[in-house]
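@channel sequence for tomorrow's demo:
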Amino acid sequence: QVQLVESGGGLVQPGGSLRLSCAASGSIFSINAMHWYRQAPGNQREWVATVTAGDATAYTDSVRGRFTISRDNAKNTAYLQMNSLKPEDTAVYYCNAFMRRRTEFNFREYWGQGTQVTVSS
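structure tokens (generated this afternoon):
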């Protein structure tokens, strides 16, 4: 079974840092771009950052300069380093990726279960 599993969320004070991880597991042949999304209570899920298979990155305006996305292809893992956290960063953070299983020819979209990030004093 192919899946994405996030970890690293928690409670942090404003101005603090957290590092999220997203590990892909299972019989994976290839992973396309990996993305982070977040969803705050009462809000729609929003895109946060992307890292391509070639390590190109992109960020939504509200996190650019504070968050850094990266990936370790040998470990099939993406990371989101979050610095200078603000209360408005509070949300459930989800990992997303299109992955191809070894037994299939097409890429499928996968979501992780989410990890809670709470920024509060």
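heads up for whoever presents: The chain is about 0% helix and 60% strand.
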